[in-house]
Design brief:
alpha+beta; about 160 residues; Phage_JBD30_tail_term-like; Bacteriophage protein
Amino acid sequence: MKLTTIIAALRERCPRFEERVGGAAQFKAIPDAGKLRLPAAYVVPSDDAPGEQKSQTDYWQDLTEGFSVIVVLSNERDEKGQWAAYDAVHDVRRELWKALLGWMPDPQGGEIVYVGGTLLDLNRYELYYQFDFTAKYEITEEDTRQAEDVNACRIYPC
């Protein structure tokens, strides 16, 4: 799955971030890459979970591709002296759901589903929260070397 498509969708459909949505190869690289103004979101790849090869004659395998949206929110106290980020996590999750759930960014893949979230870090100034999503994809012969080899044998007998 191309994460640039996810980033573009979040920039368009999540007004809270005011287009402050970026990508990062891994979360630890975010501070080194330079932070966006808050609130901000970063789309990062996560686990791929392949299924068993389902065919004995060609290639057919399920793949669950994962990605995460890490949001960084201001955790400064509001005018009531409360930590404003606590309720903001709920609101951000709702925006992310409306932007992503049920959408099929890849015509050959499945729809995006939500698989959970977790608090990554919390200090007096910032709250880091990770929302995890997956989409199913089917790897077929056309995605493999096998297809190229078979097609080559049709042109140049093996």
